[in-house]
Amino acid sequence: MYGYGGAGVVVRMWRLRSHAFAMERAVQEAIVTHRLSGAALRSRVARRLAGLPREVRRCLGDWEATRLDCLVQFAAWLRVTGRQTARTDLGGLQDLRRRWIALQNQCAQCVAADARLRSLVVHYEPSAGDVATSDPDVVVCVGPQGCGKSTFSRALYALLRQAGLSPCWVNQDEAGGRRQFLTPFGARNTKATRTSSSTR
Q1: H helix intervals, the chain
Q2: Residues of the chain with pLDDT under 50
Q3: Which of 41, 98, 132, 133 is deepest in the core (most CB within 10 A)?
Q4: Is pTM beyond 0.90 here?
């Protein structure tokens, strides 16, 4: 694993799995999967570091000094440039993982060349609308007949409506068959929270 310094040059290379490699992966997970940036990202990393044994923490001193700010700024750059938003889909997130190093290099070049962008990245904090939630888009209830899937789904549907959301409840038994049941899930333009129940 390797990364860049302020000038966009490689600052460290880990050829074998190490504590630093594990922290790089943890930060990547926080940025890509949990879509964290700014203070929330720093807080997540600080909690992770604080939970490590003292001798491991000492080993990570260089990593923390050279990489943490770079990764926080990289997360901010992804947001500022629109490469990652609260609505980035799974394919977009997978693309971020695939291009992780190339995007960091691109970030370093862009930030070095543009003082305004550098200022935005250094001082970036996500707004309330930019913060992603980990709420599911689809809830699927699967189980044997009579175990309460439909009852649970009806109750969840009612609660989501009371919360001001626009859920879509689809019951395979009432839909008429598998194809009719799956049709609403294929509608890509629908952004409603969905609940469903299915009997196998």
Answers
A1: 19-32, 38-50, 54-59, 61-80, 90-98, 100-113, 115-122, 149-162, 172-175, 178-186
A2: 14, 16-17, 134-135, 188-193, 199-200
A3: 41
A4: no
Q: Please report the pLDDT score of residue 106 as a whole number.
A: 92
pLDDT in tens, 151-188: 888 888 888 777 767 787 777 777 777 777 777 666 54
The answer to whether residue 185 is domain-embedded is no
d(CA 12, CA 32): 22
Q: Which residue has the tokens 């594990």?
A: 22
Q: What is d(CA 99, CA 105) in angstroms, rounded to the nearest whole number? A: 10
Distances (CA, A) of 36 to 73, 117, 154: 12, 19, 33
Domain count, the chain: 2
Segments forming the whole domain that contains residue 140: 136-177
Task: Provide the Cα torsion 192, 40, 73, 132; round to 10°.
Answer: 0
**Calpha distance 7→162 (Å, rounded):** 52
Distances in Å between the alpha carbon of 31 and those of 1, 55, 66, 127? 17, 26, 18, 16
Domain-located, residue 161: yes
Residue 146 token pair: 């009579």
